[in-house]
């Protein structure tokens, strides 16, 4: 069909367009995803004169197809003939930037931003900027929303008259009467400020910032908080107090918790942007208020920032500020009524010890850690345990081990398997910090108990945990403490436990080395090939395949091969399959 | 065969650690209220005499005083504070409700700002955070507004005030303005269904009495819906707003303004794509059908819109769409039907062959609808070829016997309707399938060739004429 006209070099566009028009969405989608192939087949000229007009005209389609199209067009520059012709891509992308569906529009804007850089300054003014203007004054909110994302890419490369127009358009959109557009403008305010000349930042951006920050809708106000970070970074220190701080103070006390939440969430960035002096005078009290906020969401967001905030305090007054202003609030949060707040705090609180040093940690922080280790909510305890390394560096973990152990044991036996899973994941870390002696004495039995947990995920994690422990403590330790117990389970009446033996062997053989594997593990595996449960037997085959590389070739030929041959003749189809697979992988055939 | 499958399955269900348990634990609270910086000091209100105990001349002034007292807000999250004063405010509000219901001549000009102020102080507030980001209105209990004992009476009072015979919109419009309405609309996001119900009545009254606010209200509802569909996917009061719109649409004058048509196509239809459609589908479908009864020429864009937003993976939603479509077909005009029948029946044919039996069943029920049947019969020469392949294939292989039986009936109906065409389609079924397969193969060939070309071009990296 392609060569129907006798000339294979030119595929008839009709055939290709037929594909793009196919009734089946999936097929249309497939063709759109290969749009670059189609363009390649057509060559640059026909792509420009036939394909692009077709795409521009038939832009009504499923959003999924449009999304793919919007993405493709961002990479089309070479296919239309290079930067010289890149503006040909603007019409279809302009239509895509006005559709309803947000993901499509966003993708179109992303592609437009991308190809904007490929425009020459002249083309930018002749083709690109008029498009931005059209979008910015579109009837329906979608096009105005899209325009917001395009100002900053063309602003730096156009003449000053055009620049003035762009600023005017941006101003208009900041006071648009649909909140969706104001939100879009507010979210691009910081980005736009970055490309503006400082004088316009001071004159234009600040007034827009102030207006958006007191918008009637909190969804707009909170976006202004984000912009605040970029704006504050751009301004010289002496202007911050008058231009930014009044608005920021107001945001930290906003009547909507969403806005206060945003302030809390962006606190570290804000702190860096406004510098040490303002931090000391303004942000410290603001942070205290956020930590005491009436909404748990806000407190949790602030609690998350405690460590970062303290870290970034000016060194000369850091300790005093923490001890007199922050720590009292932190102490209260330890017994907060909301578990998300406590858990957020628990995930960072350990980090304070490095900042405050050994003595303060022992005197002030340790009681808090201990209290959180006994918290009723498992997530809080887990967060403490997962950050033990910070404390270990400062005061050594021994200080905590008395309280640690009951907490670990309790988590290890928690009724929720995800909690058990989480604590298993910290075992290697704990083992490293507590040392082999402590481990053998207190924790080893837990690790073994997990191997027979009734949830598979736990048994699996426990197996993996053993490998990491062996890597830490060495093969000899493994042979004395772990291997006997693991091998003992091979005789367990429960076939799931017998399989755990196999899984452990799979995981451990490499870390334990050839000698232990051949002497201790292999005999057990081979014996299990007579198990009455087929699942065990095919796992024997899988295990043999797995540990084969660790064994020497004599042993493979003499011991492994006969067993696999026997299994390959098993009556169970899965056993056969895996035995045959093992035979071929180990090249024993 | 894997041991994961043999682990006790019940454990997973009991657990649900991730969010569920967090949510459940928090649900003990089940009430919330967001008051930023409420005062710490105990509140003292001077006990005023009852309105009925003072003379008629003194009543207006006392009424105003009571309104002012009711501007005081209490912290209901603290169940122990200010108990006496909370009770006093409650009884005062009760008294005010009775007063505006039965009294005459109380509505002087200066009462309007005071009433609106009292209502604003009480109801306008930042709604508290939802208990969980994944709040699922179908599964979870809503968080109730803690201050409801007072709030309910404030709403009640306001509704009686708006409904009062003495109420004059011309005076009230100075106070019940755009800003007021905007704040009112934001409250529809309240998780408390009792509050949303009151708001519905309030907004309805305002829409009815303030002609100057109507366009504004519609525009703001548009904004809420658009934000809901394209930005947040979260707004608790969609059903209530749609219910109000249902009666608004009912009152639209003919011919419909462009603004209203745009609302239908650009706002109401996209609402079908929301994940939580089931929560407001009945109200939405009602609005859509209202539009079509007003102006049948909208049928085509509406059905095309539904087809565009047709659910791809959610069978439950698909069933809802089929239900709505049937409601539309019930009122469709035969001339409109003809315009849309092809894309429509292509979709129905996909539904009929859905492996989800509820979807297939819902679609097959169309054949029990007499009016739809008559439309199909009139156009059987178009519809039968579209439907035939799916029906024929599925009649042999659907896993659900009930579906097979329904399909059999549908095929029988078609056979009776147009036996000549039916026989012809049955005869060419095989060759048609083969032709389709051939077409598919051709397509694959084409793409393979194109890909080879791309590879070669990649190697050569030249942009001359494509080599053969």
Automatic annotation (TrEMBL), chain A:
Q: Where are the HEAT repeats?
A: 12-50, 166-204, 205-243, 244-282, 283-320, 326-364, 365-403, 404-442, 482-520, 521-559, 560-589
- Annotated Gene Ontology MF terms? protein phosphatase regulator activity
Keyword Cell cycle listed: no
Key word Repeat present: yes
Q: Which SUPFAM superfamilies match?
A: ARM repeat (SSF48371)
Q: Where is the signal peptide?
A: none
Annotated Phosphatase 2A Regulatory Subunit A helical domain ranges read 89-270
> Residue ranges of the Phosphatase PP2A regulatory subunit A/Splicing factor 3B subunit 1-like HEAT repeat domain?
276-357
Against InterPro entries, the record matches this protein to:
2AA_helical, ARM-like, ARM-type_fold, HEAT, HEAT_type_2, PP2A/SF3B1-like_HEAT, PP2A_Regulatory_Subunit_A
**What are the UniProt keywords, alphabetically?**
Repeat
Q: Which PANTHER family match?
A: PROTEIN PHOSPHATASE 2 (FORMERLY 2A), REGULATORY SUBUNIT A, BETA ISOFORM-RELATED (PTHR10648:SF4), SERINE/THREONINE-PROTEIN PHOSPHATASE PP2A 65 KDA REGULATORY SUBUNIT (PTHR10648)
- UniProt similarity note: Belongs to the phosphatase 2A regulatory subunit A family.
What name does UniProt use for this protein?
Protein phosphatase 2, regulatory subunit A, beta a
What organism, scientifically named, is this protein from? Astyanax mexicanus (Blind cave fish)
From TrEMBL, chain B:
Origin species, per record, is: Astyanax mexicanus (Blind cave fish)
Could you tell me where the Basic residues compositional bias lies? 20-29
Q: Name one GO molecular function term.
A: protein phosphatase activator activity
Q: What is this protein called?
A: Serine/threonine protein phosphatase 2A regulatory subunit
For biological process, the GO terms are: signal transduction
Instruction: Spell out where the chain crosses the membrane.
Output: none
One GO CC annotation, please?
protein phosphatase type 2A complex
Per the UniProt record, one Pfam family is: B56
Please name the Gene3D superfamilies in this protein's record. Answer: Leucine-rich Repeat Variant
InterPro entries referenced in this protein's UniProt entry, alphabetically: ARM-like, ARM-type_fold, PP2A_B56
Region (Disordered), start-end ranges: 1-38
Q: Which family does it belong to?
A: Belongs to the phosphatase 2A regulatory subunit B56 family.
């Amino acid at each position: 069909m392609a060569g129907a006209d006798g000339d294979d070099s030119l595929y008839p566009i009709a055939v290709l367009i037929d594909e793009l028009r196919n009734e089946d969405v999936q097929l249309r989608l497939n063709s759109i995803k290969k749009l670059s192939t189609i363009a390649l087949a057509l060559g640059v000229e026909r792509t420009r004169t036939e394909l692009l007009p077709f795409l521009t005209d038939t832009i009504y389609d499923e959003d999924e197809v449009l999304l793919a199209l919007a993405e493709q067009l961002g990479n089309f520059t070479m296919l239309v003939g290079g930067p010289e012709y890149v503006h040909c891509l603007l019409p279809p992308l302009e239509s895509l930037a006005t559709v309803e569906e947000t993901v499509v529009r966003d993708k179109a804007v992303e592609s437009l931003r991308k190809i904007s850089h490929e425009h020459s300054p002249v083309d930018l003014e002749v083709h690109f900027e008029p498009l931005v203007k059209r979008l910015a004054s579109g009837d329906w909110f979608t096009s105005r929303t899209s325009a917001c994302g395009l100002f900053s890419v063309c602003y730096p490369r156009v003449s000053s008259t055009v620049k003035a127009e762009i600023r005017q358009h941006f101003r208009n959109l900041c006071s648009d009467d649909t909140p969706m557009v104001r939100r879009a403008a507010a979210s691009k305010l910081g980005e736009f400020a970055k490309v503006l000349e400082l004088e316009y930042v001071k004159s234009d951006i600040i007034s827009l910032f102030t207006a958006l920050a007191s918008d009637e809708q909190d969804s707009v106000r909170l976006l202004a908080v984000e912009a605040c970070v970029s704006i504050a970074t751009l301004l010289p220190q002496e202007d911050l107090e008058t231009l930014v701080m009044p608005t920021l103070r107001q945001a930290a006390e906003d009547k909507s918790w969403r806005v206060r939440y945003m302030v809390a969430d962006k606190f570290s960035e804000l702190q860096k942007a406004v510098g040490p002096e303002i931090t000391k005078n303004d942000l410290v009290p603001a942070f205290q208020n956020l930590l005491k906020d009436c909404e748990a969401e806000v407190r949790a967001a602030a609690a998350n920032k405690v460590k970062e905030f303290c870290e970034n305090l000016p060194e000369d007054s850091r300790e005093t500020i923490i001890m007199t202003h922050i720590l009292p609030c932190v102490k209260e949060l330890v017994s907060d009524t909301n578990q998300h707040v406590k858990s957020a705090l628990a995930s960072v609180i350990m980090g304070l010890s490095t900042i405050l040093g050994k003595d303060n940690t022992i005197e002030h922080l340790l009681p808090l850690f201990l209290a959180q280790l006994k918290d009723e909510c498992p997530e809080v305890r887990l967060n403490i345990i997962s950050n033990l390394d910070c404390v270990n560096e400062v005061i050594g973990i021994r200080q905590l081990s008395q309280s640690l152990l009951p907490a670990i044991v309790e988590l290890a036996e928690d009724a929720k398997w995800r909690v058990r899973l989480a604590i298993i994941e910290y075992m290697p870390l704990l083992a490293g910090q507590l040392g082999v002696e402590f481990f053998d004495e207190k924790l080893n039995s837990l690790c073994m108990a997990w191997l027979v947990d009734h949830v598979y995920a736990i048994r699996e994690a426990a197996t993996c945990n053993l490998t990491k422990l062996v890597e830490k403590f060495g093969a000899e330790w493994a042979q004395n403490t772990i291997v006997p117990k693991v091998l003992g389970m091979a005789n367990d009446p429960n076939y799931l436990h017998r399989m755990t033996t196999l899984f452990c062997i799979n995981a451990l053989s490499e870390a334990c080395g050839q000698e232990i594997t051949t002497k201790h593990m292999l005999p057990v595996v081979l014996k299990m090939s007579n198990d009455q449960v087929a699942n065990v037997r095919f796992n024997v085959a899988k295990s043999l395949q797995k540990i084969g590389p660790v064994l020497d070739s004599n042993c493979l030929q003499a011991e492994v091969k006969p067993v696999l041959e026997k299994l390959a003749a098993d009556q169970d189809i899965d056993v056969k399959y895996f035995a045959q697979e093992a035979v071929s992988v180990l090249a024993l055939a | 065969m894997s041991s994961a499958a043999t682990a006790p399955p019940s454990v997973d269900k009991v657990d649900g650690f991730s969010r569920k348990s967090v949510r459940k634990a928090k649900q003990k609270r089940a009430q919330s209220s967001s008051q930023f910086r409420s005062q710490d000091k105990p509140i003292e209100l001077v006990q005023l005499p009852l309105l009925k105990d003072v003379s008629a001349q003194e009543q207006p002034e006392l009424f105003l005083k009571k309104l002012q007292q009711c501007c005081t807000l209490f912290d209901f999250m603290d169940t122990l504070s200010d108990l006496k004063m909370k009770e006093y405010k409650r009884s005062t509000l009760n008294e005010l409700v009775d007063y505006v219901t039965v009294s005459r001549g109380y509505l002087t000009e200066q009462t309007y700002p005071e009433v609106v102020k009292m209502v604003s102080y009480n109801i306008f507030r930042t709604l508290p955070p939802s208990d969980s980001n994944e709040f699922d209105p179908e599964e979870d209990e809503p968080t109730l507004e803690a201050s409801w004992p007072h709030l309910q009476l404030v709403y009640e009072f306001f509704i009686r005030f708006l409904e009062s015979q003495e109420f004059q919109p011309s005076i009230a419009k100075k106070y019940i303005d755009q800003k007021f309405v905007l704040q009112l609309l934001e409250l529809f996001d309240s998780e408390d269904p009792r509050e949303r119900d009151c708001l519905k009545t309030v907004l309805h009254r305002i829409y009815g009495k303030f002609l100057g606010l109507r366009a504004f209200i519609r525009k703001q509802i548009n904004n809420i819906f658009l934000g809901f569909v394209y930005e947040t996917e979260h707004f608790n009061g969609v059903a209530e707003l749609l219910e109000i719109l249902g009666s608004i649409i009912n009152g639209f004058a003919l011919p419909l303004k462009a603004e209203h048509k745009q609302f239908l196509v650009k706002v109401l239809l996209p609402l079908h794509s929301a994940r939580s459609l089931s929560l407001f589908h009945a109200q939405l479908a009602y609005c859509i059908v209202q539009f079509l009864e007003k102006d049948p020429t909208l049928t085509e864009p509406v059905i095309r819109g539904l087809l565009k937003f047709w659910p791809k993976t959610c069978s439950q939603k698909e069933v809802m769409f089929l239900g709505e479509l049937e409601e539309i077909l019930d009122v469709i005009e035969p001339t409109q039907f003809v315009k849309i029948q092809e894309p429509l029946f292509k979709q129905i044919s996909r539904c009929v062959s859905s492996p989800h039996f509820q979807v297939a069943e819902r679609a097959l029920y169309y054949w029990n609808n007499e009016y739809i049947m008559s439309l199909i019969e009139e156009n059987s020469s178009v519809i039968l070829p579209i439907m035939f392949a799916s029906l024929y294939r599925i009649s042999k292989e659907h896993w659900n016997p009930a579906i097979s039986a329904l399909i059999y009936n549908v095929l029988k109906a078609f056979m009776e309707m147009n036996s000549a065409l039916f026989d012809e389609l049955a005869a060419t079924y095989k060759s048609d399938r083969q032709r389709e397969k051939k077409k598919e193969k051709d397509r694959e060939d084409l793409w393979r060739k194109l890909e080879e070309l791309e590879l070669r071009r990649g190697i050569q990296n030249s942009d001359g004429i494509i080599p053969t």
